[in-house]
Write the structure tokens for this entry.
Amino acid sequence: MSDLRDLIVRWQRGWAVARALPVAENVGGALRVRCMQPGRDVEYVALDAGEDLASLTRLAGLVAGEDSVTWLTVPTTDPVEAASALVAAGLVVLKHSELLMTADLRRHPQNTPVAPYRLLTQVDPYGGDRVVTATVRHESGEVGARGTMGVTGTDAVADRIETIPAHRRRGLASTVMGALAGAAIDEGAEHGILVASEDGQRLYRTLGWRPVADVLIATTPGNTYPS
């Protein structure tokens, strides 16, 4: 198994834990998971796009054959060629700019929220794994920022890191990430993995996360990227 393929498998496993999704099915060259989310019923995660672009044609056929809204997520070190292969196979590339990123959680910076905010961290079991949640609340009770990590073995996958617009530019996302990393370390994690949106990449870089591969998201014509 290549290093990238192994990382993709580990990311998907932790991402599924963070979202309480069923175990993915290996369909040969991809993992298929039922996401059960509006506008995202089924998702395929390509495992070999960096080494075998021809496999994307087969995966495009699987996506087209699904009865419900289906995405194909493609981590790749050659996004231009991968995007061309997806388009040639009849899919529409919805996102070109996401990144698969990793970090050593043991070196992750941590900070406390400034007044009038307070931080709440929680760890819940999920089968043999754990789900860590961190929430920063304003003294009014409003949520300022929040996020989740799925902890599987020594991996922790960050997901749905969000700062509410009215509470931005206060360092709350950094606080959430630090809290998640600290709690994940307490649960035995060492390696952080995430897929970063274009908006989040600058934050993660400042916190020590490094990009490993580009991530493309494709679907059949007529589908849109959920907001």
